[in-house]
Amino acid sequence: MVELNPEVYVLRLGHRPNRDKRVTTHVALVARALGASGFIMEGNDESVFKSVEKVKELWGRRDFVVQSVKNGRKFVEDWRRNGGRAIHLTMYGEGLNSKVGELRSQSPLLLIVGAEKVEGWYFRNVDYNVAIGHQPHSEVASVAIFLDRIYMGEELDIQYSDAKLRILPQRAGKRVVRVGS
Ligand SMILES: C[S@@+](CC[C@H](N)C(=O)[O-])C[C@H]1O[C@@H](n2cnc3c(N)ncnc32)[C@H](O)[C@@H]1O
Fold this sequence. Notes:
It holds the Pfam family Trm56. The chain is an alpha/beta fold. It is about 35% helix and about 25% strand.
């Protein structure tokens, strides 16, 4: 497996169980697939956690952390107190191009993404507010682009050694082989 640095975790704020199941699940799946080490959600939603656990079980990376926290602010405070860097992804922040070099040399990183409006507290109490372009789009795209840029595309070659299933890439059609139990 490729060794990716820095270590990145994703904190999802503002999840609304009646509206955000799919998007929040996608934030977590993108984080896992593109090399992050864990997904933390403020609040709880068993259906999101179940979907991610199912993917881990079949496709590997069983050590990918999936955690629910009651209070996102406290999590960020503790994270920073323990030496981690907190990065809020927001279209109002500083452009990723100007920050990515500096961020590559720091670890672990906590990426914070919202659902609707993110409280002002986060803008003031993180190490960086980083924009993935200055247009409104999506938390899923923001996490994906951030990980791709920080890992410079190496995350696309990840193979998880504890996977039960592996894809044999095809020009056309699908081939999936069972590699573990
Ligand atoms: C659907 S957007 C919500 C935007 C919301 N209207 C606001 O004012 O924050 C959900 C999340 O996607 C992320 N996001 C959207 N566009 C972004 C951008 N251009 N750069 C970085 N993150 C972005 C942010 O983390 C945001 O909280």
